[in-house]
Specification:
Elements: E1 3-12, E2 15-25, E3 30-34, H1 41-49, E4 56-61, E5 64-65, H2 71-76, E6 79-82, H3 94-101, H4 110-120, H5 122-126, H6 137-149, E7 155-159, H7 167-182, E8 186-191, H8 194-200, E9 203-208, E10 211-217, H9 218-222, H10 225-232
Parallel strand pairs: 3-8, 3-9, 6-7, 7-8
Antiparallel strand pairs: 1-2, 1-4, 4-5, 9-10
């Protein structure tokens, strides 16, 4: 098991946000975490990264309890995130943003990693000297994904990758996510667009008010009556 949340309960102050969360991601899997606003999706990612620490339960990375590890140690241990709204350094170039993703690496694989990113995202090589803040939304999403991949993650966390993109760019973005997954990277993706997420995922979980209310294979969830009514609008 690459990642496991074992009965995780998380609070912000005195407010309980997650309760008894149990989920897992195997090596090479693409797992989506679905739910509406304020369901606890982003808090789940923050708990995995160590930005928020669980009040109870454990976060396990390849069987090792990392619940008390700081964020930097978890990143060095193989986690990377593509954050909501991308959060690039807009006054830095595309190349400089990508270089930041490799800051914890020893440099020996930098050229190979950069070539891999450019193969996935040819536009980034064309735009390498352009300021990241001047790119289109779709191009910025490519930079955010490329920056995360430069750290050679074992598990890529993605927070609302379709947010703020046009329908055409959403389609393109999910094709790229599938390409990244097909290249061997395990992904845990938080997403409100259930139909698109489940169309490329292996498995999924559904959160509601801090509890997992459904889980199963992507095909099972796509045909689940309750999920259809709540998230797919049919």
């Amino acid at each position: 098991m690459l990642l496991e949340l074992d009965n995780v309960t998380t609070y912000y102050g005195q407010m309980r946000i997650l309760e008894g969360i149990a989920l897992s991601v195997d090596a090479g899997e693409l797992v989506c975490l679905l739910g509406g606003n304020a369901s606890g999706k982003s808090t789940t990612l923050k708990t995995i990264l160590g930005i928020v620490r669980p009040r109870a339960g454990r976060v396990l990375l390849e069987g090792e309890d990392v619940s008390r590890w700081p964020v930097a140690q978890r990143i060095a241990g193989g986690l990377a995130i593509v954050p909501e709204n991308r959060r690039l350094f807009g006054q830095m170039t595309v190349r400089e943003n990508l270089e930041l993703g490799a800051v914890l690496q020893d440099g020996s694989t930098f050229d190979a990693d950069l070539e891999r990113v450019h193969t996935l995202f040819p536009r980034l090589e064309e735009r390498k000297n352009q300021l990241a803040g001047t790119l289109s939304g779709g191009e910025q999403q490519m930079v955010a994904m490329g920056r995360a991949l430069m750290s050679r993650p074992r598990l890529l966390l993605m927070d609302e990758p379709s947010m703020g993109l046009s329908p055409a760019l959403v389609q393109q973005n999910f094709r790229i996510i599938k390409e990244v997954h097909d290249s061997g990277v395990a992904i845990l993706m938080v997403e409100q667009n259930a139909t698109m997420a489940l169309s490329i995922a292996d498995r999924g979980y559904v959160l509601a008010t801090g509890h997992i209310v459904l889980h199963g294979s992507a095909s099972e969830l796509l045909h689940h009556d309750e999920l259809k009514r709540a998230y797919l609008g049919r």
